[in-house]
Prior knowledge:
The protein has helices at residues 3-8, 11-52, 56-110, 125-160, 179-185, 189-192, 204-215, 262-298, 304-334, 347-365, 384-400, 431-436, 458-468, 494-499, and strands spanning 164-168, 174-177, 220-228, 234-245, 251-260, 343-346, 368-371, 379-382, 406-414, 417-424, 472-477, 483-490. By secondary structure, it is of the alpha+beta class. It has four domains: 3-127; 161-260, PAS domain (Beta-Lactamase, 2-Layer Sandwich), CATH 3.30.450; 265-334, Helix Hairpins, CATH 1.10.287; 343-499, 2-Layer Sandwich (Heat Shock Protein 90), CATH 3.30.565.10. The chain has a five-stranded antiparallel beta sheet, sandwiched between helices. Strands 7-9-10-12-11 form a five-stranded mixed beta sheet. Strands 6-8 form a two-stranded antiparallel ribbon. β11 (472-477) and β12 form a beta hairpin. α2 runs antiparallel to α3 (56-110), α9 (304-334) packs across α13 and α11 packs antiparallel against α13. The radius of gyration is 51 Å and the shape is rod-shaped.
Amino acid sequence: MNLRKLHSISIHNKILIPFVFFTTFLAGLLLIFGSNTIFIYMERMLRSAYTSGQFSDLQTELLQLKQRVFWVGLLISGGLVLFLMLVFSLIIGVITRYIRRFKAVAQKVSQGDFSQRIEVTSDDEIGQLASIFNEMTSNLQISTQSVIQEKNRSEAIIEEMPAGVLVTDLQGDILMLNRTVRAIFGVRETEVMGYPVARMVPHEDVVSQIDTVVQAEGGTEETEWAHEISSGGRKRFKVRSSLVRKALGEKLGVVTVFQDITLEKELIELREGFLRTITHELRTPLTSIIGFIELARGGSGLDDRQKKYLTVSLECAINLKTMINDILDLSKLEAGQVELKRAPLNIYDLSEDVIESLVPVLKDKGLTIKNLISPQGSVVYGDKEKLRRILVNILSNAIKFTHEGGIVFSSQTQGSDLIVRIKDTGIGMDVEGQKVIFEKFRQLDYSSKRMYEGIGLGLSIVKELVELHDGKVWAESRPGQGSEFFVQLPTVPPAEKTAS
Ligand SMILES: Nc1ncnc2c1ncn2[C@@H]1O[C@H](COP(=O)(O)OP(=O)(O)OP(=O)(O)O)[C@@H](O)[C@H]1O
Ligand SMILES: [Mg+2]
């Protein structure tokens, strides 16, 4: 707002000051003229009284004059007051008319009609005020339009997003949903807007995920689910819900994004299927190769060099077969094609078996081994072959990554579970390493002169197998100070566990 303009505004400048001057001047003129007339009249009276000598009439005449002056004065001041009232009411009328027009326009502007303008008919204070008001309204119109444009643009982007976007309030009622969400659930906006999300989303997991996010103080929750979409066909979605907060941190609602991962999943399944086929096809000839090498090695007429070559070939072929088996097993595990044959199983006996199978390697490296698991009462509920695989993989790693010292097996109970612990005095690993070693193909030594054999599948197979047993696996370690692996396994069937 222009303050200098406002400062110059003065209602008296153009109307009141000239008017007050004019009326004062008029009143002055009347006073001079009136008193002059009274004096002339009095002079005439005195002169005629003096020449006629009749001073007695003078008193009566003065009384009459006093009365006349009183009435004429009353008439003139009455007239002046009336005149002033008329002029003031005219001025107030003009100002009131302006204020009414102002009020009407201001009311429309307050209702959001920024196209309204006050007609500027003069350059006086009111005219200037009207101009300032118009300027203010026009600025408001411009900024409001740009805010509306921005809002429309954001809404259009969200509306056209290929991912489904759903916004719910803290009670779980729908605040906003885009075209993709409407298509996924086959609903119209008016049918679901303001209603609980469960009215549109028939999946308990998604509804409770949104609720979990509201209850939590932040973070993101994620689920995957398959859904028959309204236009036909089964789609798979990744659903992520995140809490939205206002600038001051107050909770506002939850944004849930539905990402169609059908194609991605199909490609993964295709890749896994291909991997299974190719490894299967490779395994069959490799088994024959190993068989024939063994046969050739056991044959007569071979010198030491030839025997050594055949031994090396055999080791390489066995390594290759182990690798192929690992890939095949892992892909079967991930595809959910592995079934457990579970039964009560003494983990002490199994660990003794596993240790015995690896004693030659332990001896080769000069490492000691102790089994502190109690022979009695260490029973878990699991699949013998799968548990053997778990222990072999962990123990092989412990041997591979330990150069001196030894390995200790121990166990502890936790609730209805048993935790098997395998501790080594090897190279250890840092905290970051401990987080990733259970991922596929993750190894911590990526240097060009890698010291340790393997492709990084052993622990991912362990993790899949342990989880198939409803168990948990984790590691605790420090670089240079050895590692300890923990495998938590149930000791009772799942049904009994829930019942207990
Ligand atoms: N006991 C251990 N001590 C130190 N590091 C280990 C130990 N066990 C595993 N690791 C680290 O975790 C990585 C992943 O182990 P994993 O068993 O999955 O793969 P790998 O042994 O390298 O190969 P593979 O098991 O396929 O032959 C290893 O490469 C190693 O870096
Ligand atoms: Mg390994």
